[in-house]
Each structure stands twice: as structure tokens, then as C-alpha cells.
Target: Alpha-1,4 glucan phosphorylase
Amino acid sequence: MKFDKEEWKKKLEERLLEKFSVSLKDASPFEIYRALGETVMSFIARDWYETKKEYSKTKQAFYFSSEFLMGRALGNNLINLGIDKEIQEFLKELEIDYNQIEDEEEDAALGNGGLGRLAACFMDSLATLNLPGQGYSIRYRNGIFNQYLRDGYQVEKPETWLKYGDVWSVMRPEDEVIVNFGNTSVRALPYDMPIIGYGTKNINTLRLWEAHSIVDLDLGVFNQQDYLHATQDKTLAEDISRVLYPNDSTDEGKKLRLRQQYFFVSASLQDIMKNFKKVHGREFSKIPEFIAIQLNDTHPVIAIPELMRILVDVEGVLWEDAWEIVKKTFSYTNHTILAEALEKWWIGLYQEVVPRIFQITEGIHNQFKNELAKLYPNDTDRQNRMQIIQGNMIHMAWLAIYGSHKVNGVAELHTEILKNRELKDWYELYPEKFLNKTNGITQRRWLLKSNPQLSSYITELIGDAWIKNLSELKKLEQFLDDEKVLNKIWDIKIEKKKELVEYLRETQGIDINPKSIFDVQVKRMHEYKRQLLNIFQVYNLYQQLKQNPNMDFTPTTYIYGAKAAPGYKVAKGIIRLINDVAQIVNGDDEIKDKLKVVFIENYRVTVAEKIFPAADISEQISTAGKEASGTGNMKFMLNGAITLGTLDGANVEIAKEAGEENEYIFGMRVEDIDELRKKGYDPRFPYNNITGLKQVVDALIDGSLSDLGSGIYREIHSLLMERGDQYFVLEDFEDYRRKQREINRDYKNKISWAKKMLKNIANAGKFSSDRTILEYANEIWDIKETKIK
Ligand code: GFP
Model:
């Protein structure tokens, strides 16, 4: 976009006056942020309209996801429009601090972690590549909770990004639809967010649905002064889009989740069908030629019976014909092999919430049951294992595979595990449906925006084509022996570390040494991700430093950031444990210049943008076979951090791209774990034989560490020692510690370290979400570049 300073100034002044009756000079940062946002929206309006018009004529892909972890929009939008520097300059002339304006924006935190952030990166790539693709989800009023620490424990407070409305969304009342549940109906009101591509005029859309009641108020009841009940219907309806992942430990919570899923899926399909009919009338057999729908995990899988309902009940299509259409329209991405995430619904609850959809699901189940009986007449075990409804549970992953034409995992190893283990029966039945789509991240947010220093330097060295084609980074390899370049990359890292130090000082009052190694683990808190292994190693290191104060040691700062699911006690216990160790280590005068432990409160996209560029070590230490892909690992790599990881998920591909000698790979591989399991794993073996390990594990229960009486440390101890240590924390401890020592030694050699950094950056090209999205577009969705003029 061309930037005309006078025009922007005029627009901004007009907005401020119209909206807040304030002059530019007197406006508050919030008012300026709002006016800036509105100005951007007004400038892109025409292109957005043109894009929609153009896309309606061609095949489009719709990404159904219960999560979109978008983060902030202002900075990213300005960058993608190519006017970020100009705006910053222009504000500076007006003596307005751009950073302060940016800080007025709350993160749109409509997701938990990797799955939701992947969806957000995909949106950026679709728009940048001029691909007709749109996201659909829920406009949760409260995104993922804000995390605070009290006595080292996580405390959750509601997140309120919509407190003052949202400048990046446009309400579209003309597209409102009604979603019918068994005994009630609700209004689904869409809000559209523009997705601005980098260096293109195309503006894609993320459509988020908000739930409203059909009746606003029961006036009769209100007039009897029963105020609470007068608005009951309204509250019940609005609850659907109130929070991301309501606690589902109770039946009521489960019901609400199912209502959420059906709500957004039904609204989206009605919307898609309305637009389809506008162009193609009742030629429903053409649906797969014009519509591709990606089911992001099992959460939106209820879309399969819902599309059947629309076609059969509403449009009068024959069941067999409708099923053919459905199968060709949907595809499904699996993001995990953990059983807890492969959703199953109890039929009683499903029947109560969506009775008609239950009948249709049963119909699909019976149809498949008959097919199975014919396919495997002599294998009733297999028939039973593959049933969609088993006992009284509906298996959503099975429904997804049966009702889709493509099924993908998110990294090579993960897809192999799906094919050969977890979904083996299915792969044998439908080998042609399975394929891999290794995840990716957008370099626009995760390098260009978050690391302007490294970005400009890369551009200085090889030009700026990497912004749209990340494999260009490979050209950096010509500088692997250039000490000037290596020194500069090192210096940029130090600068980014200093920025993080400053941020932590301001926000958490912590002081850290920018010259120490920044060893970082940021991701959802989960046992399989093994933050526990990390903190055990730190505690052991602390003891070693106490015993041997003259030990040769490069100062190291261990940095953690993670939210634990509110009902996940063990994960919350590990957060306390990290903070407990932090307090001991950081409070010890003998140690404090060598070792520091920092837990970053309320980890979120905006903070992540400061952390990735500042990291030296990227901790990716999940139990082999458990992490489907990981995407944080890619953001670290792109910013020159070295992976300390197991051969799990996309770590395998990272090591392959950059060379295993440029990462720190340790621990058991999937095969080793199989073997050990077969032999019988006894955690008491490493516990008794690895020096120092017993002391660390026992610290949980011998009074050295304290959970303040909650009993959670004893629980963790028992998970390790009595309940089989199912994530092999103790088994992998020694190898992990060995790699930590190697890192500590290697970091001293600045040039060889910087060479490793450069090797990683230069080989991060594969991990652009542009590459991933092009693969989806070509191999699954069959959509084509559609550029507006
Ligand atoms: C999940 C998986 C990750 C994977 C992402 C995106 O993310 O391995 O990279 O989905 O596919 F576990 P989390 O919810 O764990 O962050």
C-alpha cells in the first residue's frame, strides 16, 4: 500500500474527532490505537470487498477450527501492508510513541497453544499466497484465561479482549443464521476479521460467530420483578460463545462444549450453502468442485452429519448422493495421538443436545457397519474396533476418517505413527486417504515482525525475497565461514536478549544477565512435554554448583512460560515446582550469578514475539512419539536458537534440515521406548543408578521442596516411582543432562556457536506455513491462486 502522510493525518484526525471528539494532540494512546485501526480498516475496505467477490466465483477452502490464536493485529497488519516503518516515523514526528499505541491492543487469544496458533499462521499464508481460503470459528467473549502466580501457583482470571469492542471486526447482521438445538434455537451473528496478506492486495476473511438469544427479554416475568429469570434465555444462549473451552469435568460443561461445536459448525455450513446456492443454484453435486472444508482436529467433526442434515432434510437430496458429496468435501487433520484428545461423546448427551444429528450419526454408523461386515466377514474384532458408535460412545475421529477424502498428520514421524499404529486399521482400509502435511509458521510474524534487527540484516545479505519465499534463506549458507557475519548474528542475539531482560524487569521485576545462556521452554504445560525433566535437571545442577562452586560453568538462565489447563492438577503442580526451585536458586547468593530460573507469567502470543528472538536454546524434550509436530521449535530455529530435543515430531525434520550436528539431540527414540516397554521399564533403575537423580526425585517428598501442603508433589512422586513414570522422565534424565553439559561447554566458543545459529536460520525454509498451505491447496483442497486486480 502506498503511504501518503497528509492523507493519513487527515483521516486520523477526522476519526478522532468523529469518534471521541478529541484532537490528535489531546488523544489518549487508546483513542489513537482505535483511530489508527479504523483508518486501516477504511483503507482496505475496497480490496476486501473485491477479494470476496472474486473468491465467490471459484473453489474455496474453509478452515473449521475451534481455535484461532491470532494475537495482536495492528503491527502485523501494518507490516503486511508494507507501511509499518512509515507509520512509526509519522507518529514519531507527532511525538507519539508507537510502542505505547501497540500496547493498547489486547491479544485475540482464541486458542490454547500450537493448534490454535497453527490456524492463525495458516490464515496469514492463505492471504499472502492469494488463495481463496476462509476461517470459521467462534467469537469467544473470553479467550484463554489470564494467568497470574500466587505463591508459585497458577491463578486464572478471565481474559476480556472484547471489553471495549474490537476495531478489527465487522458485524454482518445480514448474514445472521438460526442454529436449532433439540429444544431451543439461537441466533448466530457473524463478525468478520480481515486477514491482510503480505505484499498483495488480497484480503481474506476469518468469520467468527457470536451466539445470541432469539428473545432478548421475557417482559412478563420482568414486569413481575423477577429480573434474574427474565433474562435466563438470553444468558443461556450467550453462554455458547462466552468462553473458550468451558471446564468439561461435569455433564453441564460437556453439554456446553457440544453446543459450541454444533453452533459454529452449523452456522458456518448454512453460510457456505447460502453462498453456494447464490452462484450454483441447486446443483448440489457441484459442491465438491467449489467447496473444500478442513476439519481442524475432532472439534468440528459434527460438521459431517450436519452437512448430511442440510442436504437430506433441507434440500431433499437422496442420502446416498449426499454421502458422496460429503465425503468429497471434507478432510481431517489429526494433531495428536493422545487418547484424551480423540473426542468421544456419550450418546445420551449427544441425543439430548442435537437429536436430529444423533439420528443421522446413527445412520452413518449403520451404513459403515454394513460395509465393514462385507469387508471383513471373518474379522469381527476389526469390525468392532472400527465402529463409529461403540457401546454408548460416538468416536468423532472415526466419523472424521470415514466422512473425509483425506486424513493428515502434522509431521512425518507423526503421520507414520498414525499409519502404522494409532490408525492402522484405517490406513489398511483407505491407504489413499492418508498423507502428511508437516506444520509451518509464518515468517512475517515470527521473524519480520518480532525480530526486525535480524530481518534487516538477512535482507542486507541476501535481499528480501525470503519474506515471501522462506527457502531463500538457504543463500545464507555462503556466509558460514564469514566471521563478520557470525559476529553480527551473535550481536543481534545479544540485543534481543537485552530487550527481553528489559521487559522482564519492567513486568516481573526480575533481573537477568543477558550474557548468560537463555535456555527456553515455552509451550502448554503437559506431562508429555516434560517440563518436569527440565526442572529436575536444573535442580540437580543447582546441587552440583553448591557442592562444587569452582566448577567450570557458563552462566545460564532457564526460562519457562506455560499455562496449565485449569482442571489439570499435575500440570499445575509442575508450575509450582518450577517457581519453588526458582525461589531457592534465585535467592541463593552463592549461586545467583551463575544460575537463574524464570517463570514468565501469562505466556501468550505477544510475549512469545519477545521470547523466540532472545533464545539461545530451544527446549523440545517431549517423550518420543508424543508430540505430533511442535511449531515453537520452528520459531526458535528461524530466530537462530539451537534445538535441544528428542527425536520427536518435527524435531526430526529440523535436525535433518540443519544437520544433527547443529542441534543437541538426546534420549530414547520411538523404537527404544517400544523395546524398553517390552523388556519392562522400572523407573527405580535410573533412580538408583544415576548420580544425583535420587536426591532430585526425593526432594519432592523429603521436605527440601514444598508444595505448601497441597499434596501435589507427593502425587508427582508417585506418578514417577509407583505408577511407572509413563513419560520416561527418569530414563531420559542422564542423556539430557549430558547434552546440557555439552551446551554449556560449546557456548563458550562464540564463532562455532554462531555458525550453528546460522546453519539453523539458513535451513528453516521448509518450516514456512506458506509451504504447508501450498501443499494443502494442491494435494487436498485443489484451490488455485486467485489474485484481485
Ligand atoms: C498440537 C500438537 C502439536 C502440534 C500442534 C499443531 O499443539 O504437536 O504442533 O497441535 O498441529 F500437540 P498443542 O496444543 O500441543 O500446542
Q: What stands out?
A: The CA atoms of residues 420 and 427 lie 8 Å apart. Residues 56-71+107-439+775-781 form a domain with the Rossmann fold fold (CATH 3.40.50.2000).
